[in-house]
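Aim 2, interim progress: modelling of the flavin-adenine dinucleotide-bound target.
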Amino acid sequence: RMGQYGLERWPELLASLASAVFFQREGTLVLWHRQDAPEAVRFAGVLARTVNEVPGLPAMQRLDAAGVDAIEPGIGKRFAQGLLLPGEGQLDNRQLLAALLASLQALPNVTMHWHSARAPDEFEPGASERIIDCRGLGARPQWAALRGVRGEVIRVHAPEVNLRRPTRLVHPRYPLYIAPKPDGVFVIGATEIESDDMSPASVRSTLELLSAAYSVHSGFAEARILEIATQCRPSLPDNLPAIRWLKPRVMQVNGLYRHGFLIAPAMLDTAIERLATRTPTLASRFALESE
Ligand SMILES: Cc1cc2nc3c(=O)[nH]c(=O)nc-3n(C[C@H](O)[C@H](O)[C@H](O)COP(=O)(O)OP(=O)(O)OC[C@H]3O[C@@H](n4cnc5c(N)ncnc54)[C@H](O)[C@@H]3O)c2cc1C
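Predicted structure of the complex, ligand included:
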């Protein structure tokens, strides 16, 4: 939960882009089945510590069955307890990438090269030039500590489901979420498997994700599966993002793990500061220093 360091920055960043991006801060609902109550207690403890550490972050609200029903009537009273994390937000990642592309294309002096693999050692930047290497797992030849963490995610069209905000379901192996997107589309994700295996989603993962969604809202029964996707998250040993200088004038930004969209504004501000000054103040808060 990045609080003001991430979510507060998104609206102003989005306002500067060439096309609209769905963004809302209706909070996140956290639910769990009875058998996962111990994991829910652990998770609530982590959240409580975060609220203490990050000034200004709104406190979580404990809900009973009636409370869950009041904020998400579609779920009804099938969960005895829940947590509401006020102020949590979400954005449409695909709209964001489309808007970034349109914005880049509208700028003068921007040249894009698609489908062309690059490595930093191919270039020797001049005194006024900088290279910023954001190749995710593609940077592994220059950053041996990077590893892939496989994630599977399912996109469905579910017009019978009326969830208004992202809903997380506490799960013993990985945090699951159902994220509403515009036009009755929901993204159900994401598994977390220590592997850089990019093969298609497994039956087990698909069953887990779809069962989780159906257990939260029976309207998913008639949903239509639009897509089942697999990707690997670029991750460092501590699962925290990092910025480092590979050599003079070549900066690497990597290790965004599960949170690339959530923490992008913080990484952006940190990277810009690192480019602009030799005495950064932001970096220590977010990034592992390994110059
Ligand atoms: C299933 C799944 C669900 C996720 N859900 C969320 C979520 O809900 N919220 C959230 O905040 N984050 C989420 N993430 C994490 C997020 O997607 C990542 O943190 C983010 O994509 C990392 O961004 P990146 O730009 O650093 O790396 P990447 O997205 O991996 O991008 C690296 C790019 O570099 C390119 N490249 C690689 N090698 C080369 C080369 N040699 N030359 C040129 N280009 C190269 C690649 O083609 C790629 O386009 C999820 C990830 C997965 C897999």
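Residues 28-86+147-235 form a domain with the D-Amino Acid Oxidase; Chain A, domain 2 fold (CATH 3.30.9.10). The first helix runs from residue 9 to 15.
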